[in-house]
Amino acid sequence: MRYLILSDLHSNLEALDAVLRAVPAGTCDRIVVLGDLVGYGADPNAVVNRVRALAPAAIVRGNHDKVSAGVEPADNFNDAARHAATWTFDALTSENREYLAGLPAGPIILDEVLELCHGSPDDEDEYVFEPTDAIEALRAARCNVCFFGHTHVQIGYWLSGSDFDLIVTGPDEDTTVRIEEGRRYLINPGSVGQPRDGDARAAFAVFDSDRGEVTLRRVAYPVAAAAAKITAAGLPEGLARRLALGK
Ligand code: ZN
Fold it and tell me: For 78-104, what is the mean pLDDT?
């Protein structure tokens, strides 16, 4: 089974479409979404409609989905994120708002081969940035392969007993991670719609469970077009600028 893993789309239609073009229909059996479909970007309805049409095999909510759908207040959001969430709440159709409000919290186990969550298997809102956080998350995971999002950084970690290491992606080529027996993996496919690891290209992953391989991929997209829409929508200018920086 081949799974397309998408996270942190953030209402960026140009980025999502570039990813879907890079992975033509039929080359993956199932689509998995790790949350944050909306927030920050200017195309919430178009992105939610795309995701719904893709009929993901599994999907969890992100913190921006909760706040933008009115499920939670924006208490922990900075000014730009709060502004965007309020704007998104108003822009969403009631149908799409209900769809987002009804998304389940992670973690979810799919097909007994992969686990998905937004923040960590322990806490959907936790940021896994530090190796110590990753080790804790690896211990909390119930599956040998667990995908997470939220940080917008494409990275992997593995743990086997007391052995632990990072899987860092290169700047040019796809990074293929071989899933080895006896190791647990915690993998972030990176963000489709607002990468923050210094690479402006849309990030995603493909997991081939038969081959035991995860490929971490990047694809260029029309950043200027997505940024211009953010400006035209009257959203904070910093949200437009950061797309080109990948930060
Ligand atoms: Zn996010």
Answer: 98
CA of 176 to the centre of ligand 1 (A): 24
Gap from CA of 182 to ligand 1 centroid (Å): 31
Residue 175 Cα to ligand 1 midpoint, Å, equals 22
CA–centroid distance, 156 to ligand 1, in Å, is 17
Using the mean position of ligand 1's atoms as its centre, give its distance from the Cα of residue 161 in Å: 31
CA 108 – CA 117 distance, rounded (Å): 7
Rounded Cα distance between 113 and 238, Å, is 39
Residues 6+ away with beta carbon under 8 Å from 128 = 119, 120, 134, 137, 148, 150, 151, 186, 188
Please write the tens of the pLDDT for every residue from 193-243.
999 999 999 999 999 999 999 999 999 999 999 999 999 999 999 999 999
pTM of the model: 0.97
Buried/exposed code over 103-140 (b: 16+ C-beta within 10 A; e: otherwise): beebbbbbeebbbbbbbbbebbebebeeeebbbbbbeb
For 44, 104, 234, 241, the CA distances from 147, given in Å and listed in that order, are: 23, 16, 34, 28
CATH number of 2-245: 3.60.21.10
Sign of CA dihedral 189, 30, 107, 211: negative
Closest to 35 measured CA to CA, from 126, 112, 111, 169: 126
